[in-house]
Structures are given as C-alpha cells and as structure tokens.
Amino acid sequence: MSTDFNNSAIEANANEQTAQLKTAADLYHYLDDLFEQDADSDTLFAGGYLRGLSSLVATDFGDENQALTAKLVESITAKISQSKSELTPQDYAIVTNFWLLVQTKIAN
Fold first, then answer.
1. Global pTM?
2. Which of 5, 63, 97, 102 is the most buried (most CB within 10 A)?
C-alpha cells in the first residue's frame, strides 16, 4: 500500500457507479467490478478485503439474493472493527473509509 492515503481517489472510484446496492449480490458485483475498472491500489485492496469480509458475514444471513439489511451492514461493520488487529493502521483506515463510502450506495 502507498504511504499516502488518498481518500479522494477511493471516493471517486466508489462514486463511479450510481445504482443503489440492494442485495448481497449487488454488493459483490460492485466490489468485483472494481477490478475491471482503472481503480488505484488502495481501492482494489479495500474492495478485495471488503468482498471477503462481506461474503463471510453474509453466509450467516442467507444467500446472495438477500437484502442488504441494517443488521447485515452492522455485522459487516463489526467484522471490519474486529479486523483492526490484523491490519496496519493505514490499511485499516483505507478499508474503513471505503466501507463508509460503499454504505452511501446501499438502498435503505
């Protein structure tokens, strides 16, 4: 990861798609698409990490067609918080900030 955290680059990548995320499948598709775009390395790292965590958490709630409920989002957030000890402070900030931006795309 680069030593200079570039929140504006992550924000630009997170805002490229305008569709609201309604299901776990929508979230997975959004995160997988980051690898097809010209995303920076911080965004790719955060997207891949978040993809893994969200898949892990979502299995406790149902299949990929399940709605992105507040409870599911809270559980993903909690899992990210728990991962703080396995990430560097910079990587934790990158993942956390990217997740905050992704949450703005989740349909309420």
1. 0.79
2. 102
Q: Cα dihedral angle (59, 93, 32, 74), rounded to 10 degrees?
A: 30
Domain extent listing, the chain = 20-103
Contact 89, 48 (CB under 8 A): no
Contact in structure between 54 and 73 (CB atoms under 8 Å): no
Q: What is the DSSP string of 56-99?
A: HHHTTT--TTSB--HHHHHHHHHHHHHGGGGS-HHHHHHHHHHH
**Do 105 and 14 form a contact (C-beta atoms < 8 A)?**
yes
- Contact criterion met (CB below 8 Å) for 31 and 54: yes
Q: What is the number of residues in the chain?
A: 108
28's enclosing H/E stretch is helix 24-33
- C-alpha to C-alpha distance for 89 and 25, rounded to whole angstroms: 29
* 7-31 pLDDT, tens digit each: 555 454 444 445 699 999 999 999 9
Let me know if 5 is exposed, middle or buried by CB neighbors in 10 A (0-12, 13-18, 19+): middle
